[in-house]
Amino acid sequence: MHDADLLLRTEHFPLFVSVLCQGADRANSAVDLDGAPLDRPAVAEHFVFEFRDFDREEIAARVEQPDLIVSMGEGFVGVSLDPEEWH
C-alpha cells in the first residue's frame, strides 16, 4: 500500500494490521480451519505498507497489540501473529 501515512493515523490501523496478519496466516497454512489438509500448496502471503515519512518506532508503537509480534530492522517494521495467542 503506497502512501500509508494517513492510514497509520486512523484509529482502526492496529486492528487492520491484525486482520491482515490473520489473513496471511490462513493463506500461508496448508490446512483448513479444522486441521484437514488443503488440496493446494500454502501461499506465501505478506503485505507491504510504504510510508513517505518512515518512523519505525512510531509505526511499531501504533501496531503493538497482545496478539502480534512486532520486529524492527534497518528500513522495516515486521508484524506477525503471536503463535502463543493464535495457534
User: Poorly predicted ranges (pLDDT <50, ≥5 residues)?
Assistant: none
- Give a quick account of the main beta sheet: strands, pairing sense, barrel closure: 2 strands, antiparallel
Give the proportion of residues in helices. 25-40%
**C-alpha termini separation:** 28 Å
Oligomer type:
single chain
What is the 3D shape? elongated
Strand runs, count: 2
Largest beta sheet: strand ordering: 1-2
Q: What is the H/E order?
A: HHHEEH
Tell me the radius of gyration: 14 Å
- The structure class reads alpha+beta
Mean pLDDT: 88
Helix count?
4
Proportion of residues in extended strands: 5-15%
Write up what this structure looks like.
- The protein is of the alpha+beta class and 87 residues long.
- The protein is built from four helices and two strands.
- The chain has a two-stranded antiparallel ribbon with strand order 1-2.
- The chain is elongated.
- The two termini are 28 Å apart.
- The model has no long low-confidence stretch (mean pLDDT 88).
